[in-house]
Protein: L-fuculose-phosphate aldolase
Organism: Halarsenatibacter silvermanii
Amino acid sequence: MGTEEKKEYICEIGKRLYEREFVAANDGNISIKLAEDDFLVTPTGVSKGFMTPDMILRVDGAGEKLEENELQPSSETEMHLDIYDKLEDIGAVVHAHPPYATARAVEGRGLERKILPEAVISLGTVPVAEYGTPSTEEIPRQVEDYLEDNNAVLLENHGALSWGEDLKQAYFRMETLEFYARILKLIDYEHAGEISEENLARLRRIFQKE
Ligand SMILES: [Zn+2]
């Protein structure tokens, strides 16, 4: 996929986030790593459901524009760049406010029950990073501890963050995260069974082989 196609793909994923109500108004942001010190990031002040490829900004590792663009990069660009800095192998980051996941983030409760095979394989458990003021360096600082061992994290009183080797994987992790949070809301805790350790081990063996 070339750079222009990647800009189009960001717009496509933005539409999906908006249509699935994972973001309201101008919320959320998406980024892709093109190369070392070279990234695509969504603009600030634009709905993710209405982006066109010319709106996607190309920035360096300090968040400075590499291409002319009248729009400004997302106020959460620093959070994205910080994640790329810590996790060298990843290629994309998605930040959104999906309702069920955000509700858990507001409650300060992570997603820690092993109830769904897909969630276990794709996400493991999803912790909550302590509250930080959006668009400040507080969020990258709170998230740092969770990057290495997780594929996604809830941001307390805020929303959710996922990453992956490419945008498709980062987006799918956000979908799985929201589905997982939704099921947790729907179940009757008292009667909900968890997947046994034996079956979890079996599940991991099967997926690691692929
Ligand atoms: Zn947000």
